[in-house]
Amino acid sequence: AQSVAQPEDQVNVAEGNPLTVKCTYSVSGNPYLFWYVQYPNRGLQFLLKYITGDNLVKGSYGFEAEFNKSQTSFHLKKPSALVSDSALYFCAVRDSRFSSGSARQLTFGSGTQLTVLP
Amino acid sequence: DAGITQSPRHKVTETGTPVTLRCHQTENHRYMYWYRQDPGHGLRLIHYSYGVKDTDKGEVSDGYSVSRSKTEDFLLTLESATSSQTSVYFCAISDLNSYNEQFFGPGTRLTVL
């Protein structure tokens, strides 16, 4: 079974400082990893994904994520936080071995609320 | 929200009544999903569809049924709503040739009294 852990329910950071939102995962095969962001009263928006290749993935709005296979982590980062980055962030994983059926589905973490303080 | 609409956006109903939520897409994507979002649980998959009339259960399917008679529409039905089904429901879609990168609708907030 696959799983995702987001160990921090809440992350606070000052505007202009770097931010990190943590994610660790567990899958039997190689992972496909995703980050989504949710603004209040909105659906989830795709930020970035890791499929294969370069461990540093760049996405929307200046976000990037680093895949670390030995630590089974996929932490979301941004060099300089903005107040407008305040939102709920979700990490998700699926096992790359399966192309159909229930095993193809994404498993989401419980979410991390990011607050950027002015 | 990527050509996905959900209706209604808000609904208040009473325990024991049937409720149907609709998801409509204009992207012609093969896969469609229903999730529920609850504090502390993230998103949990209720049901999904991999084609017209092809559906399967997700993690939390008890008390829910789905139907997909057209590519663009995916219906979620609560046959007899319970208070535990108070939640925010999201529809998502993905393309056959993607890595299951999913695109989400705006959500439906359902309150069961």
Describe the model.
The complex is a heterodimer of chains A (118) and B (113). Chain A is mainly beta. Helices cover 0% and strands 51% of the residues of chain A. Chain A contains no helices and twelve strands. Chain A has strands spanning 3-5, 10-14, 19-21, 24-26, 31-38, 44-50, 56-58, 64-68, 73-78, 87-95, 107-108, 112-117. In chain A, the strands form three sheets. In chain A, strands 2, 5, 6, 10, 11 and 12 form a six-stranded mixed β-sheet that branches. Chain A starts with a strand and ends with a strand. The model of chain A has no long low-confidence stretch (mean pLDDT 92). Chain B has 113 residues and is mainly β. Chain B is 0% helix and 58% strand. Chain B has no helices and eleven strands. Chain B has strands spanning 4-7, 10-13, 19-25, 31-38, 42-51, 54-57, 64-70, 73-78, 87-94, 103-104, 108-112. In chain B, the strands form two sheets. In chain B, strands 2, 4, 5, 6, 9, 10 and 11 form a seven-stranded mixed β-sheet that branches. In chain B, a hairpin with a 2-residue loop joins strand 5 (42-51) and strand 6 (54-57). The relative contact order of chain B is 0.34. The model of chain B has no long low-confidence stretch (mean pLDDT 93). The interface between A and B is medium-sized, with 25 and 25 residues.
